[in-house]
Amino acid sequence: MGRLAGCFEVLRARGERALVPFITAGDPDLATTAALVPVLAEAGADAIELGVPFSDPIAEGPTVQRSSERALRAGATLRRILTLVKELRPQVDVPLVLMGYANPFFHMGEERFAAAAAEVGVDGVIVPDLPPEEGESFYAALERAGVDPVLLASPTTTPERLALLSRRSRGFLYYVALTGVTGARAEVAEDLEAGVRRARELCDIPVCVGFGVSTSKQAAEIGRYADGVVVGSALVDRIAAEPDLPGRLEAARAFVAELKAPLRKPR
């Protein structure tokens, strides 16, 4: 059993839902990311998404776009991020998931990337611009290497496609809370609960909700019907607002602890 599957099994036994924070690797530099990841884990993160910065992140809103620009200017690359994961792996037990666009992975080579990711301890990979039909060989390479391909569904996904995504995704299914790009939102979409419940009925794996979640109140609401919550832009904003490393670490610690608290309570 992989770390992601094991993580959700433990949470299910406790009656908890997962908190999966996202940060862009290398924002504002890789040393900061190296310091942040253990803090996120200690504060309550059940798994951590590390964004692979890309010059054209089409699914991202302004917050994550700016974080990618900062990371690229600081020299973050896929290979350096893999090295960072290798260095972090002895320090943290929680699953580490890379979220990035297809181009950097393909440029490295499907098999080479899959093998390298497995070797350093990456547990899953999310590729927003690579549907299963176009990414069949890439996702197969990940599975052969023991890395979970995590696929995405949305409110517009048909029941037939949800079933397909459930069969091909591993670890969890990432349910996009809204159509459009990432970014903190003031309210949860009215039809989100019905969509997530439909996905959970059709899926044999946990369903985690992301895109737009920005408060502990929203996390608590989504935790009533989802298996986990992904929070990205709101966390990236809080980190970016701090002028120095101690401030960034404390802002991240406090926000993750706040988000996780309602997810520990039984439904």
Q: Can you lay out the helices and strands and say which pair or pack?
A:
Elements: H1 3-14, E1 18-24, H2 30-43, E2 48-51, H3 62-73, H4 78-88, E3 96-99, H5 102-108, H6 110-120, E4 124-126, H7 136-145, E5 148-150, E6 152-153, H8 159-168, E7 173-176, H9 192-202, E8 207-210, H10 216-223, E9 228-231, H11 233-240, H12 245-260
Parallel strand pairs: 1-2, 1-9, 2-3, 3-4, 4-5, 6-7, 7-8, 8-9
Structural features, described:
The protein is built from 12 helices and 9 strands. With 267 residues, the chain is α/β, with parallel strands linked by helices. The two termini are 26 Å apart. Strands 5-4-3-2-1-9-8-7-6 form a 9-stranded parallel sheet. The chain is globular, with a radius of gyration of 17 Å.
Q: Unreliable segments (pLDDT under 50, ≥5 consecutive)?
A: 180-186
Largest sheet: 9 strands, parallel
| First and last CA, distance | 26 Å
Structural class: alpha/beta
Beta-strand percentage?
5-15%
Question: What's the order of the H and E elements?
Answer: HEHEHHEHHEHEEHEHEHEHH
Approximate shape: globular
Level of helix content?
Answer: 40-55%
Count the beta strands: 9
Count of helical regions: 12
Overall mean pLDDT stands at 93
The order of strands across the largest sheet is 5-4-3-2-1-9-8-7-6
Tell me the radius of gyration: 17 Å
